[in-house]
Design brief:
heterodimer; A: about 600 residues; alpha+beta; three-stranded antiparallel beta sheet; B: about 375 residues; Rossmann fold; Cytochrome-c3 Hydrogenase, Chain A, domain 2; two-stranded antiparallel ribbon; globular; disordered N terminus
Chain lengths: ~600, ~375
């Protein structure tokens, strides 16, 4: 038992009762969380463990760099496309390929489309059950529910009959005794605060959002051929444009296709603004005294920036999602972030199931090594293949610990919104100020679990508008006579230099994402990804700094230790993506211990 | 017993049975009874059994499904919720009982794992195991940890008690991306781990949403496994190549090809074979059912098929390499008939066909010109 003061300002005490949550559900991938609570059930120590590992980087070695997007896209099927975009950017950076304006617009539309879809699905299908109690919805009055819905939005599905039907269906479902995904939820927990009518409204929208999300992604299907996992192209986009020439009807992009995309964008804007944002505001108003979960957000946040207004221009002013870092909660200074600088982004493995030749030294991704080393600390309980309790003083996660100039950072929608707010970007600052005013909260309220969830919603709305902006820009550019979608000048590997390296970045739904590639003799020589959940889910580093997940749980009161809905609530507010964070693997991977089960 | 199990409402409503679902989907009582008669006949039972079958269908609970996740990217789950007909919502609320799926379930930790125990006890031999992702065997199996233990413990335990297994996607069916060379985690597909249960492979990265729900609804409606090809894939969706039903096929036959992305031929929607399309060797329903409620599919959006439903598609060269192992003619053969033959065919075959098509096209053009 020990008390540790971390350099980033937390006091960790692991002497109290230990709570283990494994698996953490309603996330992408596999994750474990352990916390110690004191006699008042307040969390005094938090340990987050990435519990999966896939090894994609070694698989990429020796491959054609033009194929890398397809491999890296499969890092994650939830934030589908964002790794692919990051990958084609990295390869284009290495080969100095400039893409056409239309390709920039289409890529932006696809990336923004992902933001809208992912945020919506996260809110309703991964996060809502932390705030919404579907069982309580059974006792709602449909008439009052209708009145509530109509008081907050002009969304058309709001009649008493509509809510009555939803309630009847829910009742039938519950009465069947087969509760499916709602089984064994913490439905008696006092942590749920919504009145029954708000619960019923949210359940109705849970189902509507499930129906509607499949429409949003059709933008990917039109520009990329399918979703999940649309197709991309180094040099531009694969969807050629043919407006009124021969055989336009069979071309990837024609008038009908453009119209379909425009229509889906309009519907998405409507759904986000009339359903998602009003629900978010209504739910937040009942939880605004639940101020836990801020963690690093009030201290260190970072974003790489994304959505270039004009093609091939990566200057901060050209990016519609902001770039920058805030340190120590000082919003008056936004630090410039340079992902090429070996002193800025570094990964450490002191507490990760990997080893470096020199464990004390961090490595920049261009020089990254990832040699796995799965072992449990001496104080761990259980066995190597049946872990009862993690020993966080030793190695304890498949996630590495990335640091920016030595600091543990939070990334994601809230980080972007804090950076954008600090920069005074009107498209970000104004909606934030409006929401805070509506809820009667100060700016500091942003630094919380709820702030993370709210920023995601506001960002969905912003991104839906930006989607429309780029769709209009695409059409205007075609009108001006430019139908180019791909630059094929350097398509042939014979045109490439012998040795090059590049970096691509995006703002994925979950935060700052970077791919670093080295190309040698036309093949991938080294490929490293540092992904959002690597930042947020990072274990401790050699100095003892705790990562964003762990920091966010500190000081949270858990009502019932065996129903830790509060832990899920805060972890979910980051929208963890474990397949993303734990894909890394070394060249030496094949030498690992091998167990046969059959 | 959890809170929700004990919830009582004043008006006890009946369980939504298979019959209710059929009624809700617009099937009349008359058709329902007819369906029961046909089922009785098909099973070689006399007319007296019609009533019994009808009774069973009217009162049968939804079949429990435990959906486990190994090493994967969750694209299969994401695809599943894209289903337009039936809606994913209706599958989950009215057709199956999705009792365990860690991507969407409310419960976590011990409460989540307790569901597995309960299902095994209550429905031993009578539930479906759906597998997304695959099972790593390196690193002591600990590169995928569930509840402190290797994933293979979970899948083996559940598989032992299930009725049948659905392997969702290319990960569970073949291995997919993490099993690409050199497969550092020794990611292993379901059928190599579990050998004593019926397994339906539904490959694709991911599979098409309506194919996923189509397989489930077929089993519920017809109460049997779909017919499978030799590789274990439902024939109804995987017996033809993308190329066989591709809307750009006439351009292939006419020798009209995209030579480079965004060239004039790309704008005309010519065949993508020369820029690497794997449609000629890929068995899937993309060119027929298409993606996302029939909206489009990769070739229509201008990129070649990357062959994502085929075993080992990551290790067959670049996605932009021209195929060299394709039969040029015929849409008749299914995967079983062609099978190994595809691998044996040489580049000469496809090249010859492409040339023949070009010649034929030139000849036709000449004739047309003459005719004018």
């Amino acid at each position: 038992m020990s008390i540790i003061k971390t350099p980033n300002g937390y006091t960790l005490d692991n002497s109290g009762k230990r709570i283990v949550v494994d698996p953490v559900t309603r996330i992408e991938g596999h994750m474990r969380c352990e916390v110690n609570v004191d006699n008042n059930n307040v969390i005094q120590n938090a340990v987050s463990t990435g519990t999966m590992w896939r090894g994609l980087e070694v698989i990429l070695k020796g491959r054609d760099p033009r194929d890398a997007w397809a491999f890296t896209e499969r890092i994650c099927g939830v934030c589908t496309g964002t790794h692919a975009l990051t990958s084609v950017r990295a390869v284009e950076d290495a080969l100095k390929i400039q893409i056409p304006e239309n390709a920039n617009s289409i890529r932006n539309i696809m990336q923004l489309n992902l933001q809208v879809h992912d945020h919506l699905v996260h809110f309703y299908h991964l996060h809502a059950l932390d705030w919404v109690n579907p069982v309580n919805a059974l006792s709602a009055d449909p008439k009052k529910t209708s009145a509530l819905a109509q008081s907050i939005s002009s969304w058309h599905k709001s009649s008493p009959g509509y809510f009555k039907d939803i309630q009847t269906r829910l009742k039938k479902f519950v009465e069947s005794g087969q509760l499916g995904p709602f089984k064994n939820g913490y439905w008696t927990s006092k942590a749920y605060k919504l009145p029954a009518e708000a619960d019923l409204m949210a359940v109705a929208h849970y189902l509507e959002a499930l129906d509607f999300q499949k429409e949003i992604v059709k933008v990917h299907t039109i520009y990329g051929g399918k979703n999940p996992h649309p197709n991309w192209l180094v040099g531009g986009v694969p969807c050629a444009i043919n407006m009124d020439g021969n055989m336009a009807a069979g071309a990837p992009i024609n008038m009908e296709r453009l119209n379909k995309v425009s229509s889906i964008i309009e519907q998405s804007i409507e759904f986000v603004n009339k359903v998602y944002i009003p629900d978010l505001t209504a739910i937040a108003s009942f939880y605004k005294t639940w101020t836990y979960g801020g963690g690093l957000s009030g201290k260190n946040v970072m974003s790489y920036g994304d959505i270039p207004e004009n093609a091939n221009d990566w200057s901060a002013d050209n990016l519609l999602l902001p770039r920058g870092a805030i340190i120590g909660g000082d919003l008056s200074t936004v630090h410039e972030v340079d992902v090429r600088d070996p002193e800025q982004v570094q990964e450490f493995v002191d507490h990760s199931w990997y080893q470096y030749p020199d464990n004390a030294k961090g490595l920049h991704p261009w020089d990254g090594i990832t040699e796995p080393n799965y072992e449990l600390g001496a104080k761990a309980k259980g066995t190597k293949t049946n872990i009862k309790e993690i020993d966080e003083s030793a190695k304890y996660s498949w996630i590495k610990a990335p640091r920016w100039r030595g600091h543990a950072m939070e990334v994601g929608p809230l980080a972007r919104y804090i950076v954008g707010y600090a920069k005074g970007m009107p498209a970000i600052k104004e909606p934030v100020d409006k929401l805070l005013t509506d809820l009667g909260l100060p700016v500091s309220a942003l630094f919380s679990t709820l702030g993370r969830t709210a920023a995601r919603g506001l960002e969905a709305s912003y991104c839906a508008d930006l989607m429309q902006h780029f769709q209009k820009k695409l059409i205007a550019n075609i009108k001006n006579g430019d139908t180019s979608t791909a630059n094929m000048e350097k398509w042939e590997p014979s045109t490439w230099p012998k040795n090059v390296k590049g970096v691509g970045t995006t703002e994925a739904p979950r935060g700052a994402l970077g791919h670093w590639v080295k190309i040698k003799d036309t093949k991938i020589d080294n490929y490293q990804c540092v992904v959002p959940t690597t930042w947020n889910g990072s274990p401790r580093d050699a100095q003892g700094n705790i990562g964003a997940f762990e920091a966010s749980l500190m000081g949270t009161k858990v009502e019932k230790a065996d129903e830790p809905v509060e832990i899920l609530r805060t972890l979910h507010s980051f929208d963890p993506c474990l397949a993303c964070s734990t894909h890394v693997m070394s060249e030496e991977g094949e030498e690992l211990i091998n167990v046969k089960v059959r | 017993m959890s809170a929700i199990d004990t919830v009582k409402t004043d008006n006890k409503l009946p369980i939504e049975s298979f019959y209710d679902v059929m009624r809700r989907q617009g099937i009349s009582r008359r058709s329902f009874i007819k369906y029961c008669s046909l089922t009785a006949t098909a099973l070689g039972l006399g007319p007296s059994f019609v009533g019994k079958i009808a009774y069973a269908m009217e009162n049968k609970p939804r079949i429990p499904v435990l959906w486990l996740h190994g090493l994967e990217c969750t694209c299969c789950s994401e695809s599943f919720i894209r289903s337009a007909h039936p809606l994913a919502k209706d599958v989950v609320l009215s057709m199956i009982s999705l009792d365990y799926d860690d991507t969407i379930m409310a419960a976590a930790g011990d409460q989540a794992e307790a569901i597995i125990e309960e299902t095994i006890q209550k429905y031993d031999g009578n539930f479906i195991l759906a597998v997304e992702g695959n099972t790593p065997l390196n690193q002591d199996g600990m590169s995928c940890i569930i509840a402190g233990k290797p994933f293979h413990h979970q899948i083996e335990k559940v598989a032992k008690h299930c009725k049948a297994i659905i392997s969702w996607g290319s990960c569970a069916s073949w291995g997919c991306v993490q099993a690409a060379r050199p497969n550092p985690t020794q990611a292993t597909p379901t059928h190599k781990l579990i050998t004593d249960k019926p397994i339906i492979k539904v490959p694709g990265c991911p599979p098409i949403a309506e194919v996923m729900t189509g397989v489930i609804t077929y089993m519920l409606t017809f109460e049997k496994m779909p017919s499978l090809d030799r590789q274990g894939r439902p024939k109804m969706f995987y017996s033809q190549r993308i190329h066989d039903k591709c809307y750009r096929r006439p351009h292939f036959d006419a020798g009209q090809f995209v030579e480079e992305f965004d060239d004039e031929n790309a704008k005309k929607g010519y065949c993508l074979y020369k820029v690497g399309c794997k449609g000629p060797t890929t068995y899937n329903a993309c060119s027929t059912i298409r993606w996302n409620d029939g909206t489009s599919f990769p070739i229509q959006a201008g990129h070649g098929c990357i062959g994502c439903s085929e075993d080992g598609f990551w290790d067959k060269g670049s996605f932009y390499d021209r195929l060299t192992d394709v039969h040029g003619f015929g849409v008749e053969g299914d995967a079983d008939e062609i099978g190994g033959a595809v691998a044996l065919a040489t580049g000469a075959v496809i090249a010859a066909h492409a040339a023949a098509s070009a010649l034929k096209s030139a000849k036709t053009n000449q004739e047309n010109t003459k005719g004018e």
